[in-house]
């Protein structure tokens, strides 16, 4: 068995400030892995431009022209981080043995790639890059992240704690992942569903080298909602259970009201009645909202629209197919 061909997949959205800094770093790490005999000489770096509005794509094109180790694909419009990442993984599936996905901002420790490849050569098809601590995060960021993972696990979504999208996937994992056709993507929960032998590599996360984060709290909440609704039906079951409890309490209340009325002790209770009606009405609206989220997701899945469209490539697609 020869050395595996590696493709480092890097989604990019408005990264004109940080890309010129991190691209040489990725190249140096790739060369180092080649020198140490972990990967083949035809390994490469694939940038995925997620419909950036700045000069990100122009920078990627310039990198690809200056050095064949750099490759790039441009999506026809902004589709979000998860779709852009999937586009890169599906693209490199045709010309690599193993992929490592990583963000462009330089926060993830690229030195952990060697440990990932070592685990792959030892027989692991999936290697998760996991943060060893969150010491560099603000209190709010650290707390919200912990709540995110606890919420996902509480809702029955299988995830790896403190793992984002820094991971190694073998060719056969990519092949199986291509069979997952859902539109609402949550790769952190989908990859564990594929199975195969897996392990984790721990690393320290750094500060962003340049530019601003494109993952504020609103996007984190949207990602959590996507993950829950696409991989778990537990919220619907919780609503069903809550509905049963409220119905039971209401039934007991009716019996109590009838008994009090028969005993002639009935008293006008406008405040209590309004409170009960508002409470039950709120529960009903909450239940309808949660069910509506699932119906909306089903609606989007039923359309079977493409999850991404590649408009440009810096390389000839046909020449790289195996």
Description:
- The protein is of the alpha/beta class.
- It has 11 helices and 8 strands.
- The protein has an 8-stranded mixed β-sheet, sandwiched between helices.
- Helix 2 links the parallel strand 2 and strand 3 (70-75).
- The longest helix has 34 residues, at 270-303.
- The radius of gyration is 25 Å and the shape is elongated.
State the gist of this model.
The protein is an alpha/beta fold and 322 residues long. The protein is 51% helix and 15% strand.
What portion of residues is helical?
A: 40-55%
Number of strands: 8
Per CATH, the superfamily of the largest domain is Spore Coat Polysaccharide Biosynthesis Protein SpsA, Chain A
User: Strands across the major sheet, in which order?
Assistant: 7-5-6-4-1-2-3-8
- CATH-level-2 architecture of the largest domain: Alpha-Beta Complex
Structural class, judged by helices and strands?
alpha/beta
Mean pLDDT: 81
Number of domains: 2
Secondary-structure element sequence? EHEHEHEHEHEHHEHHHEH
**Could you please say which CATH topology of the largest domain applies here?**
Spore Coat Polysaccharide Biosynthesis Protein SpsA, Chain A
Number of helical stretches of at least 4 residues? 11
Kindly report how far apart the N and C termini lie: 17 Å
Major beta sheet summary: 8 strands, mixed
Compute the gyration radius: what is it?
25 Å
What is the overall silhouette? Answer: elongated
């Amino acid at each position: 068995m020869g050395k595996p061909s590696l493709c480092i997949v890097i989604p990019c959205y408005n990264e004109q400030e940080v890309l010129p800094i991190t691209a040489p770093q990725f190249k140096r790490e790739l060369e180092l892995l080649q020198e140490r005999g972990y990967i083949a000489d035809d390994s490469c770096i694939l940038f995925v431009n997620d419909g950036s509005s700045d000069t990100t794509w122009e920078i990627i094109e310039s990198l690809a022209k200056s050095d064949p180790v750099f490759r790039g694909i441009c999506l026809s419009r902004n589709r979000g981080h998860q779709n852009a990442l999937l586009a890169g993984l599906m693209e490199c599936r045709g010309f690599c043995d193993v992929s490592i996905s990583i963000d462009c901002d330089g926060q993830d420790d690229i030195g952990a790639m060697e440990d990932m490849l070592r685990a792959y050569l030892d027989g692991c098809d999936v290697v998760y890059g996991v943060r060893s601590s969150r010491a560099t995060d603000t209190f709010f960021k650290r707390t919200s992240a912990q709540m995110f993972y606890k919420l996902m696990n509480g809702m029955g979504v299988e995830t790896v704690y403190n793992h984002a999208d820094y991971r190694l996937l073998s060719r056969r994992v990519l092949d199986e992942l291509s069979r997952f056709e859902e539109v609402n993507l949550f790769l952190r929960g989908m990859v564990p569903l594929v199975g195969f032998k897996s392990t984790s590599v721990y690393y320290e996360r750094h500060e962003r080298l340049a530019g601003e984060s494109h993952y504020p709290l609103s996007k984190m909440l949207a990602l959590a909602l996507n993950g829950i609704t696409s991989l778990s039906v537990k919220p619907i079951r919780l609503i069903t259970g809550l509905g049963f409890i409220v119905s039971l309490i209401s039934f007991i209340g009716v019996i109590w009201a009838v008994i009090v009325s028969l005993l002639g002790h009935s008293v006008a209770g406008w405040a209590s009645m309004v409170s009960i009606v508002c409470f039950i009405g709120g529960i009903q609206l909450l239940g309808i909202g949660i069910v509506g989220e699932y119906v909306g997701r089903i609606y989007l899945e039923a359309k079977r629209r493409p999850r991404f469209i590649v408009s440009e490539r810096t390389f000839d697609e046909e020449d790289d197919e195996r």
